[in-house]
Write a structure and sequence with these properties.
This protein is α/β, with parallel strands linked by helices. The chain has one domain: Rossmann fold. Helix content is 40%, strand content 21%. The protein has helices at 8-16, 23-35, 45-57, 72-80, 94-105, 120-124, 143-150, 177-191; strands spanning 62-66, 86-91, 113-117, 131-136, 154-163, 195-200, 206-211. The protein has a 7-stranded mixed beta sheet, with helices on both faces. Helix 3 packs parallel to helix 4. The longest helix is centred in the last third of the chain and has 15 residues, at 177-191. The radius of gyration is 16 Å and the shape is globular. The model has no long low-confidence stretch (mean pLDDT 96).
């Protein structure tokens, strides 16, 4: 079962009442559409702006991202960091990496970003906390593993954000491995007393978990 969570007309209305990003973001969106086989994986303008606001509201100085893709969300969050802030982002796709690195180099906030290539679960073993905010938007089958690895790296009061947690409505009738993985992740976070959590109906669903 696939559900259109947000009607196009509502999406456009929301965009019309949301901060307009720098022109580079529209170019990045178009480049992703032209060069990537699954451009719908890109975080959109609304969610990107929301992430940037979360970074600013959290007064974050260090951000961790699992799943760079072509770099839209990383650049948005980097805009929300102070000049001496740091964002570490992880990915495995060299085609997406090339686009991301190009746009990072062309944006002043891009200097705050460090892109680590390789399986994220291996990269996470090499990182030292604390981080103020973490964003998970990678292979759904590993969401629960990413959660277990990332939460200890967050400071108390740090925020974990996960994308696609409604999975086009398939969480209601899970059939595939990825469907069941998202359901298991949502159940894990909901039952975890270490975090205060809310599952938001923004785009394809966003889980926010505040570490106690």
């Amino acid at each position: 079962m696939t559900i259109t969570l947000v009607p196009d007309a509502i999406e456009k209305y929301a965009q019309a009442h949301t901060e307009v990003p720098a022109p580079l973001f529209e170019e990045l969106r178009q480049t992703t559409q032209e060069r990537m086989s699954a451009p719908q994986m890109q975080v959109g303008r609304l969610e990107g702006t929301f992430l940037r606001l979360l970074v600013r509201m959290a007064n974050a100085r260090r951000v961790l991202e699992i799943g760079t893709f072509t770099g839209y969300s990383a650049l948005m969050m980097a805009e929300g960091l102070p000049e001496d802030g740091e964002l570490i982002t992880c990915d495995v796709d060299p085609k997406a990496e090339a686009i991301a690195r190009d746009f990072f180099a062309r944006s002043p906030p891009g200097k705050k970003i460090s892109l680590r290539m390789g399986p994220a679960l291996e990269t996470l073993k090499t990182l030292q906390g604390p981080f103020d905010l973490a964003f998970i938007d990678a292979d759904k089958e590993n969401y629960s593993h990413y959660y277990d690895a990332v939460l200890p790296l967050l400071r108390p009061g740090g925020l974990l954000v996960a994308d696609n947690t409604l999975w086009s409505g398939r969480v209601l009738e899970p059939k595939s491995e990825s469907d069941r993985a998202i359901v298991a992740f949502n159940d894990k976070v909901a039952a975890d007393p270490r975090v205060e959590k809310v599952l938001l109906t923004i785009r394809d669903g966003m889980m926010l978990a505040l570490k106690r």
